[in-house]
Every structure is written in C-alpha cells, then in structure tokens.
Amino acid sequence: MNYFEIPNSSRKYFQTAYTTFEYLFFTYILFKNIKNRKIKPYIVILSFLFIVFQAIYVQLGTIIKLDTIPIGIETILIVFYIIVFLSELAKNMETSIFRNYCFWISIGILIYLCGSFFFYILIDSLSREEVLAFGKMTYIVEIIKNVLFGISLIIFSKAGFKKEVHEEIRPAPYLDIT
C-alpha cells in the first residue's frame, strides 16, 4: 500500500505511530547502553511524557503534511540522550570508542535526525514541488544512517563472536573424585 492511498483522516494516526515507534526504538537502544543510573529515570519520565503528548497531539493538533511539532520534540530528546551517551562513553574509554557498536548507531541516529530536522520542521510551509525537490536530500542522511547501522552490526557480530570463542577456550574444572 502506498502512503498516498491511506485516507486523509487516517494519515495523522499513521504519522504519529511512525514518530512514536521511531522515538521508542532509538530511545530503547540508547537506554540499554547508557550506564548512568541517575539519568535513566529521567529518560523513562521524558518518554512517558512524550507518548502522552503524542496522544494529545493526534487528537487535538492539526497535521497538515507531517507531525512537525512531535518530530521536533523527538529530535531534541534523542539528541540529548545521544549527548549523554557519548559523554559517558568518552569518560569511560576502556577500549577504543570506535569498537563500541552503539557509538556507530548513535552517530547514525544523530546524522539522520539532525540532517532532516529543519526539512521536517518546515515541511508544512513548503509547496508540493519544494517537498518533492528537497525531500530527496533526506535520502542522503538516511543512507548514511543505514551504512553506520551496518557498521554497528559488523562490530556487534565480531564482539559477540569473540565472547563465544573466549567462553569455549576456558579450561574444564578438575572433577576427578577418586
């Protein structure tokens, strides 16, 4: 089904669901990788408030082309979470930052959200021709995000494989009972 085949009355629910899912997915990844226990309750509270805002906005707000206000709030919150994660990662550099799979995910999310932020915020004031022309530029940041996600998968798979190999090398305990 094509997006434009969705009835206009249902599009706002589709857009809101997409924005909410994207927020929850990115937040979950960052939440699992942030180790600071003091900041985690704030992330949960902000996420709850964001979901409540989304529910209210979809009922009361007027969505012309895109849910621009929730996208702006989503971007600001996730950029804040990324800054917290990256500062925490920089402080606790046990190994190279580049060997952390979540570093690449967070950089991909950061490039994607910041690269498309102003376009999505201003989309309601653009004509259809401008949206079609400038909308293609958001594909660039989406491709970069996907490449960085791919790099993170490679790093994650190598790290997971090394853990499995180290577990197999451990010597068996001496259990001779004679």
Question: Descriptors for this entry?
Answer:
178 residues; single chain; 6 helices; mainly alpha
Description of the molecule:
It is built from 6 helices and no strands. With 178 residues, the chain is mostly helical. It has one domain.
Oligomer: single chain
Largest sheet data: none
Order of helices and strands: HHHHHH
Distance between the termini: 71 Å
Basic shape? elongated
Q: What fraction of residues sit in β-strands?
A: under 5%
Gyration radius (Cα, Å) is: 21 Å
Into how many domains do the coordinates divide?
Answer: 1
Mean pLDDT reading = 85
Runs with pLDDT <50, length 5+? none
Range of helix content: over 70%
Structural class by SSE content: mainly alpha
- Number of separate helices: 6
Task: Provide a compact summary of the structure.
This protein is an all-alpha fold. The chain has six helices and no strands.
Which secondary structure elements does this structure contain, and how are they paired or packed?
Blueprint: H1 8-33, H2 40-60, H3 68-91, H4 101-122, H5 128-135, H6 137-169
